[in-house]
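Re-running the complex after MR caught last week's input typo. The corrected sequence lines follow. Everything else is unchanged.
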Amino acid sequence: MSGINKVILVGHLGKDPEVRHLEGGVTVASFPLATSETFNKDGKRVEQTEWHNIVLWRGLAEVASKYLQKGKLVYIEGKLRTRSFEDKEKVKKYVTEVVAENFTMLGRKSDFEPNAPTNGNSSNINNKIEDDFSTSIDETGDLPF
Amino acid sequence: MSGINKVILVGHLGKDPEVRHLEGGVTVASFPLATSETFNKDGKRVEQTEWHNIVLWRGLAEVASKYLQKGKLVYIEGKLRTRSFEDKEKVKKYVTEVVAENFTMLGRKSDFEPNAPTNGNSSNINNKIEDDFSTSIDETGDLPF
Amino acid sequence: MSGINKVILVGHLGKDPEVRHLEGGVTVASFPLATSETFNKDGKRVEQTEWHNIVLWRGLAEVASKYLQKGKLVYIEGKLRTRSFEDKEKVKKYVTEVVAENFTMLGRKSDFEPNAPTNGNSSNINNKIEDDFSTSIDETGDLPF
Amino acid sequence: MSGINKVILVGHLGKDPEVRHLEGGVTVASFPLATSETFNKDGKRVEQTEWHNIVLWRGLAEVASKYLQKGKLVYIEGKLRTRSFEDKEKVKKYVTEVVAENFTMLGRKSDFEPNAPTNGNSSNINNKIEDDFSTSIDETGDLPF
DNA sequence: TTTT
DNA sequence: TTTT
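Corrected-run output:
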């Protein structure tokens, strides 16, 4: 009859959410999310990061744009959706996104003060202790989307 | 630190699993899986189907190739992986797949006898009656789940 | 900060849903759900069944009481809740329940016609043939999922 | 055929893992895990905490005892199991547990240094910034198990 | 108490 | 390309 299409992610935002307002007043937000996995390969600790395109609609988009920021840790629940689009050269392409159905902020409370500035190398005492997630993203910079 | 990357699907196979044997003897199987969602739009019942690329490795690939067939209902648990490849025109493309970590067959037992032919409109009486063939599965006894 | 408390089950109802109407007009439904696991132990196929107490509230309770029946296969998503109560002898006891947040009917469509009688060994021909009654469901059109 | 019995939790340990070694050398670890949910009730922010009995076996128990500690944030995936036992007065009781199948440590890296001392009111600089989760547990002290 |  |  019906089916199940469910995605559960816990990871860090690669960028601040990007918010757009469509005609009709609908809000959409999106951001890349990194989920990392570490495993041993030939006795060495290897980290593999997977990047996900997260899309949020309406009220969820507005909450996300208010509370989520680059580097923050979030739990996201949603569904997979593959859509096609035309790139600049009019070539048809496909992209798979995770359409969020709800999310929960994880980590320290201080990480989620609304309206806090996002300076990558902030000297904010609360950010100081965090691991160096954000800078390493800036360096590699090769999000596949 | 670490993250979570989990996908849970319940849907029907769009095709029989396609099995390949890589150099080194590693088996890979893949198939498209459809998850359907029905909702009301302007008083009308609309069905929206999402297609997922499922990939299975090693032992899981072998079990899948033995028991799963076009049309069957399965529960699949896995993780998202986006990989790039070059198409025939040497254009770099991305595809997102669900790498299965385990699966469970749902539905009637008769749907899962190994080696059964896949005729779309089969009039095989066994497909209409539940609980048939259960003994033959008991006899082979090698269902690893 | 916040947490995640999520349960995902696919199993068969052990009984028809039991519906109660609380003061204030709130509807609650509940039923036992069996999830079975089979594994090999000393070369023998062993089945282990786990029973879950499922509880549904309000609209979800009403839909469940209309469509779910003893023996049917369902996907249930919800959260764990342990509550205390006093038994007949005034002894404090604890019970853990799965409070359903949504559910999806799996299996053949004919399994889910509303108001069908529940005779365990029914010889009703409609239970043997797939795809029957589909139009009658289309006509009523009020399946909210 | 088969079923699905899956639990996904993100929460904080209420106590250090308790490790036991059974005859035959099997290791079992267990601890209470709190998942909190906050919602608005009559305009006020209410927090509701659910406690879960987590049980881990063998290698997973050993890893847990090494890395997990009271107050730490973890993602746990497992299955529900209700078992009966006799209490001191020989009364038969039931308890529902989450048998962990894997777990992932979340939060700051410094939270998971192995062998770190667990003093509730530690003056360890890394613990200082944490929110006051641990003390509030000590005060209420009413774990239902 | 279900189902396969 | 599946299924209901």
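None of the earlier attempt is carried over here. Chain A touches chain B through 33 residues (CB under 8 Å). Confidence is low (pLDDT under 50) at residues 115-145 of chain A.
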